[in-house]
Predict the structure.
Amino acid sequence: MKVKAIFIVAFCLLATNIQAQENHAFKAGERLQYDVFFNWGFIWLTAARFDFTVQNTTYNKTPAYRLQMAGRTARAFSMFTFTDTTKVYVNRKTLEPYFFRQASHEPDFFNIHRLTYFSNDTAKWGVFVENERSRREIKHDTVTSNKTAYYDVLTTLYSLRNVNTDDWKVNHRITMPMIFGKDTLSLQLRFMGREQIKLRNGKTYNALKMRSALADGKMFDKNEEMTLWISDDKNNIPLMVETKLKVGSIRAQLSNAENTVHPIAEVPKKK
């Protein structure tokens, strides 16, 4: 379970308030693929694979994007298995979310989590929460805030893609509001600088390096840190994520990117 949680949070770390705009750093048809590796001593195992896709659709007759993340355990990682499909429908212009659904399946467990967003005169932001676990009744809850809008992991990820990082300086800090389940939280992110990184796909990229302390609580241990690299270009694509656990560590890397709006900041190979 922790493999999924850390990987998902990693791609939400740069989000700021969503701003309406006509042009986005992604488009329908884009596909990003990632491999997740688990380190135990001197051994690196391929633990899981994730695909992120963008499609044009409508939601209640309004033009929308369907943003989807599909994850599954790699065959070689038999100690823990899962499949996970997460999707959210967002306004195609503003990226404000309408509806979020996450379905997680493990050998003896499944969980379906739904968020239906709304707003009214007394709340700037609100969401109706439904959670269904294996052979248990559906639990309902409503979460509102009149100060801050908290968005799900996929909405936060794709709003990240539109952040302007040109004027960032070392130690620049960002606070990121998000909702997990029915809990709202804010993560703190610190910009560490620019560097080049080489991935297992054989490519080297110009990257922005960030570090964040993970939220203490149900999902993570206190004082765990995560390091994130994103492409130093107009795409702001997460390239690699790394975090240490009590036993071993986890690393996720971009393996392939298709149909991006802008060229990725890949460093040409020396002849």
